[in-house]
Amino acid sequence: MPKIITHIRPHLDDICAAWLLKRYLSDCRDAEIEFIPVDDPNPANEADYYVGVKRGRFDEHKGDVGECAATLVWKHIKQVAPPSDRLEKAAVEKLTDWVRLEDTGLLMKLDLREYAVPTILMYRFLTNHRDSADLTSFGFQILDSLVEAQKNYIQLTEDWESRVEFQSIFGPAVAVTTSARDIESFAYARGFDLVVFVTKERDFHNIRAAATSDIDLEPVYKQIKAVEPNADWFLHHTHKLIICGGDYTGHATKSRLTLEWMVDLLTPNYVRAKQI
User: Fold this and answer.
1) What are the pLDDT digits (tens) for 38-76?
2) What is the full DSSP assignment across 117-161?
3) How far apart, in whole angstroms, are the C-alpha atoms of residue 230 and residue 252?
4) Across the strands, what pairs with 208?
5) What is d(CA 157, CA 33) in angstroms, rounded to the nearest whole number?
6) Hey, which residues does 74 pair with through a beta bridge?
């Protein structure tokens, strides 16, 4: 079985490259990862996969300007073993391009760099006995989460196309049916201070106002409880959030309201019957 070989204290792109190899290439799935000094004098073994070292196929230091180890591996995988899932392929494309931007220094001027993934990885290494294997394993967990986040974002972008924009009692608002996460920040970034959404499975209902707005959702909460008294609706103490169902509850009685009902409840002089 071939090994995956990279340098001691691998960077984000090297970790991502190894993660890609183990995730998508059958002969790498159970491969051991070995860490060598960047100036290791031993010749490369042609049966092994070298990542970021030895100036080989997956080492950008041989002159691949604008590339990184992860993008070089991803180009290879797309040729020999591309993901069959549409969302997965698109998500990894976005993820590896972000890794490239990080590795080539194009994101260094962003705010809050002290919270960026490369910073987290560096201090994981420095505070955990300078253990390259632990660092890589930790990086794999981050990448597992990030690829799911990208799949979520792509799905959210698609679901957004079916949104309903409406004039609420608080001003412009948007309503969406989606099982994707983080719809609120997505909508806030597009100029809405009030977001309504229901999951496609109808197991979670949410009305949320931006924290920076002056919206008080308590009157809406009272209306909803009048319409649907037996559902376990919850008003957050900030009065910016009303929810029913979701991951936080154990045996909550879920809402039967449709997205259209919730939009009506938020419009002036809503006209639907009081009973569902």
Assistant:
1) 999 999 999 999 999 999 999 999 999 999 999 999 999
2) HHHHHHHHHHHTTT-HHHHHHHHHHHHHHHHHHHHHHHHHHHHHT
3) 10
4) 195, 241
5) 36
6) none
**Model's pTM, two decimal places?**
0.91
> DSSP letters along 16-81, please?
HHHHHHHHH-GGGTT--EEEE-TT--SPPPTTSEEBSSTTSTB-GGGT-TT--HHHHHHHHHHHHS
> Taking phi first (over 0 means left), then psi (-120 to 50 degrees means alpha), and beta for anything else, what does residue 9 get?
left
Asked if 4 contacts 22 with a C-beta cutoff of 8 angstroms, the reply is yes
C-alpha pair distances (Å), 191 with each of 44, 182, 185, 213, 262 = 54, 15, 10, 12, 20
- Work out the pLDDT band at 271, boundaries 50, 70, 90: low
- Residue 39 · residue 8 · CB < 8 Å: no
Residues 264 and 271 sit within 8 Å (Cβ to Cβ):
yes
How many whole angstroms separate alpha carbon 238 and alpha carbon 268?
23
Residue 172 near residue 165, CB atoms below 8 Å: yes
Written out in words, the top-level CATH class of the domain with range 163-265 is alpha beta
First to last CA, the chain: 63
What is the C-alpha separation between 149 and 180, in angstroms, rounded?
9
Specify the pLDDT at position 64.
Answer: 96
Domain boundaries of the chain, sorted by first residue: 4-157, 163-265
